[in-house]
Amino acid sequence: MVDVAGLVEQAREGRPRAVARLISLVEGASPQLREVMAALAPLTGGAYVVGLTGSPGVGKSTSTSALVTAYRKAGKRVGVLAVDPSSPFSGGALLGDRVRMSEHASDPGVYIRSMATRGHLGGLAWAAPQAIRVLDAAGCEVILVETVGVGQSEVEIAAQADTSVVLLAPGMGDGIQAAKAGILEIGDVYVVNKADRDGADATARELNHMLGLGESREPGDWRPPIVKTVAARSEGIDEVIEALDKHRAWMEERGVLAARRGRRAAGEIENIALTALRSRIGDLRGDRRLDALAERVADGTLDPYAAADELIAGLTGDGGSGS
Ligand SMILES: Nc1nc2c(ncn2[C@@H]2O[C@H](COP(=O)(O)OP(=O)(O)OP(=O)(O)O)[C@@H](O)[C@H]2O)c(=O)[nH]1
Ligand SMILES: [Mg+2]
Question: What 3-state class would DSSP assign to 137?
C-alpha cells in the first residue's frame, strides 16, 4: 500500500518522482485511486489548462517547448501532458516530443509526462483529466496538454482545457482537414506555425475566412485571434501568450471559465459513473439476479426496459469499490 498522503505532500513540494507515482496510480486505476483523488481534490483548481491540437508535424511540441520557456521566464511552474490517442503505446511521436522537450528535462519547475496507452477504464478521455488533476494539485500554474492527431478523441481531450489552441501550418492542406475534423469549432486561439515558409499568409487568410472572423459578432463575444509563429525560433510565442492571457481574462470576466469547468466536471462525473455502472453490470454476468430477469424477459412475463430498471435499481446502494 502506498502512503498517499506522503506522496501528495512530496508532489506539492515539486518532487517529480512523487508526481510520476501519483499519475501512475491514477492511470493504472490503482485500488487506491479513490484515496488519491480524495487527497488531491482540495488542492486542485489553481492551474490554467491550455490544450494544443493540430495535425501531425504542425509544430505542437516545438510550440509547447517554446511556451514552457516563456512561462518559466515568468516564474511559473509548468506541467506538460503529451497525449497520443491514436497510439496503443508510448514511443513514436512522443519520443520526438521527449527530444524537443529535452532542454526542460533538468528544470525542477517543469513536469513533463506522456500518455499513449489507453487507460484501464474509460481510455485516454478518462485518464487525461485525472492526470491533469495530479499536475494541478502538484502546484503547476499552467498545464499544457498536447494532443497528437486529428479525430474525435482529440476533440474530447481538447475539451479538458480552459483554452484550446489549434495549430496549423502552411502547405499541409490543413484548412480542409481542419474543417472536416471540426477543430474549427474548438479553437479559442489559432496559430499558423512555420510562418517562415511560403503560404503562411494565405493559410491565415483562408482560416480567417473559414472562421467567419470578418463577420460582425455580438459585442463582447470572443473573437479567436490568429497568431503567426515560427516556433522553431520562438518567434511569435509572446503573442501566443498574450492571446492566452486575454482569453483567460475574458473568460473570467464573463463567468465562462467557471461554466466550462463546471461542464467539464459534469462530464467527468458522468464518465466515472458510467464506467462504474458498466463494470458492475459486467460483474453480474452469470449472476442469479440477472439470470432470473433474463428468464422473465425470455418467456414474455417482463419487458426488457422494466428488467433493465430493476437491474439498475438493484445495483444502487453499496456495491463494492466500483473502481
Ligand atoms: N520551418 C519550420 N519548422 C518547424 C517550425 N516549428 C517546428 N518545426 C519543425 O517541424 C517538425 C515537427 O515539429 P513538432 O513540434 O514535432 O510537431 P508536432 O505537431 O509536435 O508533431 P507530432 O507530435 O508528431 O504530431 C520538426 O522537425 C520541427 O523542427 C517552424 O516554425 N518552422
Ligand atoms: Mg508532438
Answer: helix
Domain boundaries, the chain: 1-42, 44-253, 268-316
101 CB within 6 A, ligand 1: no
Q: Which of 128, 127, 112 is nearest to 29 (CA)?
A: 127
Q: Is the dihedral of CA 268, 80, 74, 163 positive or negative?
A: negative
Using the mean position of ligand 1's atoms as its centre, give its distance from the Cα of residue 60 in Å. Answer: 7
Our mutation pick for probing the ligand 1 site, out of 53, 61, 196, 229, counting the most ligand atoms within 8 A of Cβ, is 61
- Partners of 53 in the beta sheet? 147, 166
96 lines ligand 1 (CB under 6 A): yes
Q: Which residues have CB atoms below 5 A from the ion given as ligand 2?
A: 60-61, 97
- Window from 93-97, 245-249, 252-256 with minimum mean pLDDT: 93-97
Residue keyed to cell 482545457: 161
Note whether 96 and 176 are within 8 A (CB). no
Query: Can you tell me the distance from the alpha carbon of 243 to that of 225, in angstroms, rounded to the nearest whole number?
Result: 7
Ligand 1 lined by 148 (C-beta under 6 Å):
yes
Question: pLDDT tens-digit profile of 72-121?
Answer: 999 999 999 988 766 554 444 455 555 566 777 778 889 988 876 554 45
Name which residue sits closest to atom 32 of ligand 1, judged by CA.
194
Q: What residues does 110 pair with on adjacent strands?
A: 78
Residues 35, 42: contact at Cβ < 8 Å? no
Q: In whole angstroms, give the CA distance from residue 26 to residue 234.
A: 34
Report how far ligand 2's centroid is from the alpha carbon of 286 (Å).
46
> The pTM is what?
0.86
Closest CA to ligand 1's atom 9: 59
Residue nearest to ligand 1 atom 29, measured at CA? 232
What's domain 44-253's architecture? 3-Layer(aba) Sandwich (3.40)
